[in-house]
Amino acid sequence: MSMTDRLDQPRELGLRLRPSYDREAFGRLSERIARFLGTARFLVYMTGFVAVWILWNIFAPAGWRFDPYPFIFLTLMLSLQASYAAPLILLAQNRQDDRDRIQNEHDRRAAERNQADVEYLTREIAALRIALGEVATRDYIRSELQHLQEELRDDYDAAFRAGGTR
């Protein structure tokens, strides 16, 4: 943070050699322009503009023509447009790269948290499985009771045959 950005410090008065501007506003504007330059609408507009320019300078009365046949002024205008478009597109790409880098960092942190949560839950499930392995299940108790019931029936039948009375 530079001294000019601090609110608790007085502003320095004096002549500035560099103009100051809002980087964020300029960046947003460059992104809007770059987004427009990458559309079919822009291509149609530019094609129409160039076609009108050329047709005007070929078919208009001689006194109204401002850029005769080699269309040097048109070439200059298109070069000027390209010289501004390329840096604006690069600026927009750099801003997008910065946003992507920040988003990737957030995604990486979220993935690490999710991985830690999954590992924790996996350990908990394993502990529950081990604990459930020591707990008698309904089917196990049922089979043991049936087994005991059969043993009691066998003992009762053996006692009945040995004593002869019920």
From TrEMBL:
Membrane-spanning parts: 42-59, 71-92
UniProt superkingdom: Bacteria
A Pfam family it matches: DUF1003
Key words of the record: Membrane, Transmembrane, Transmembrane helix
Keyword Transmembrane helix: yes
Protein name (database record): Putative membrane protein
Organism of origin: Planomonospora venezuelensis
